[in-house]
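As a warm-up, study this chain.
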Amino acid sequence: MKTLFIVLVVGFISLAVLLIVCANVANLLLARAIKWRRELAVRLALGSSRSRLIAHFLTESLVLSGLAAAGAIGMSVVAGRALHATLIPNVAFGSVLSSRLVGFTALAAMVSAALAGIMPAMQASRPDVLPALKEDGGRSTTAGRARLRRGLVMAQAALSTVLLVGAGLFVASLANAQKADLGFDPWHSIQIRIERGETATTDASTADLYRQIEERLPRIAGVQFAARSVGVPIGGINFGLDVLVPGSDSTPRSPSGPPSISAVAPDYFRAIGQRIERGRAFTEQDLAESAEPVAIVNRAMVEFVWPNEDPLTMCVKVGGPAAPCARIVGVASTHTTARIGEAPHMMVWQPLDRGAVRGVRGVVAGTEGPPAEKLDEIRAAVRAISPSIRFVDIKSFGAPVDQELRPWRLGASLFSVFGLLALLVAAVGMYSLLSFDVAQRRFELGIRRTLGAETGRLIAGVLATSLWTVVCGVLIGLGAAALAAPRVGPLLFGVTPHQPVIYAAVACGLILVAGLASWVPAYRITRVDPAQTLRIG
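Now compare it with the structure written out below.
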């Protein structure tokens, strides 16, 4: 599922950016074709065929695409390795540079050349010959071509809006997921398990080794607590045992299922950073055979089974009706057992070797800093306990949590990087369009200034035309994003697909960038010398 998500995200973003770039290149080629309108009309008047002119423009577009494809292959090697190393290290794929990549890039270059060159080629190959021959420098242009160029800018703004809305949704999801209360501290806790050689097979000797590991680990600098346990916080254990509550005929079953059961030593909750919200944790006295049966439950179980009662006055039977009723002495926080954002899962803990769950499956330990800094020292200390220890398996609880965060991190990174790239390309397109418009209208603007038109009003008029094009594109993009957002709703966390703040921020940001990109060409109006313009005209 996650691999499919990665493929879909990369494919959609790549297609959107490709369309934006094609629109930008098409706009630039179209602007140049308008500038060469008189020359093209002369060539047609001298007998050149339309197909030859179209071939000329398509060839030029293909050369540009080919050069871009060559640069893209080099960049893909670097970017692909960086992407694999930082965002998807567990997703296996072959060499970044392969025959498939080269072939796909060549195909994409040809498609891009066709997309970017066909409209300028068609427009340039059919000018009105007589009016074009009468022009003196290409000042005039047709309204249809102006609408086409503004339509391409509008398309760039719309696609940029979709990408930036996606970036905003995934960035917000990532921020919410990183701030989610997991109920324990996965970034500073680990589990240690051992495998023994063939000469040591009895459970008693293995249990004794785990006890020695529990005692030795806190002596290592940076290791705060260690505790033997049967279960672990992520992947809670359910042994198929019934948990009965006095007054109830069956095991309580919440929407997430029946309670999971585990057995732990006293320092277990401190070792994994899990909070005891009410009551107390287990003590060494609770491990004694003569001690009263006790248990700890999590908040999810309290809220489901005893929503209006004091859980510290209740007891539970683990293992069937004949099991002793274990008095609840503490309520722990509800921690994640499989996925971030999952439905709360009920848990019951018993003192180690005192309840229905027996044996030791490993030792959990809590560290002051990142566990990776202590893994070698911890592994050496465990190996030194007995020569019968053949293998030491150390797992950080942060690894599965990090894997859960990866789809949001990938979506946020890709949408943000390519969204900003699309915004930059769109801004260049807006700048080039308005620059060309100002150059084409130089004669007109010179006359208007000669007749007394205020410079500020001329600038405002040019900016209004540009911004209106962008606003229309943004509105189209917001509508498209609103229609597509529910499809990615299940991939979001703590944010709705139609978050008004994100949509408004993207719209305002795009319009602001459009205004900045349009200001410099519009400002050139103030540098127009009316007398010189009229002499040129």
